[in-house]
Specification:
Layout (H helix, E strand, L loop, with lengths): L1 H20 L3 E6 L6 E2 L1 H8 L13 E5 L7 H8 L3 H12 L8 E4 L2 H10 L3 E6 L7 E3 L1 E2 L15
Parallel strand pairs: 2-7, 3-4, 3-5
Antiparallel strand pairs: 1-5, 1-6
Length: 156
């Protein structure tokens, strides 16, 4: 009986951690950017540091949470389609020789991410939908906004 209760508690905790990691993400942009929508292939290029400038000439900076955090698992699977170690290699390659203006920046929290995107012209980032505030603009990804059916970065 005690083993059964312990197993149930373990399964409940495991499911809770899994659900917590499967959150809805949103693509946000600096408000001075003219970006209101982006295709999935173009977004993947931004995430891999393959796009240097926006059409308006601003330098592109992609800001994300650490790829090793559980919250980024969905993002790595859907956008990079690579394991964490290879994503870190992609980031290092994209930033090589760009010390003054990295292509990809890693931050510690959603709050840091929103603040960095808001303060850096040309910046975009991926953040939990509940961390969005009025300092950034939400960008349509593949024609959809977060929480719309079919949105690429939907957590479940």
């Amino acid at each position: 009986m005690l083993r059964r209760k312990a197993l149930n508690v373990f399964l409940f905790l495991a499911a809770s951690v899994s659900l917590a990691a499967a959150r809805d993400l949103a693509l946000v942009s600096n408000k001075t950017n003219s970006l209101s929508t982006i295709t999935l292939p173009d977004f993947v290029k931004v995430c891999k540091g393959q796009t240097n400038h926006w059409p308006d000439g601003k330098s592109v900076t992609f800001i994300m949470r650490n790829p090793s955090t559980p919250e980024m698992k969905l993002f790595l699977e859907k956008i990079y389609e690579l394991p964490e170690a290879q994503v870190k290699d992609v980031i290092a390659t994209a930033n090589h020789g760009r010390m003054g203006h990295p292509a990809i920046m890693i931050v510690d929290s959603d709050e840091d991410l929103v603040n960095k995107v808001a303060s850096l012209p040309g910046a975009v980032g991926v953040v939990d939908v509940y961390a969005i505030n009025s300092s950034v603009a939400v960008v349509k990804l593949a024609g959809k906004l977060p929480l719309e059916p079919g949105y690429v970065l939907h957590g479940n």
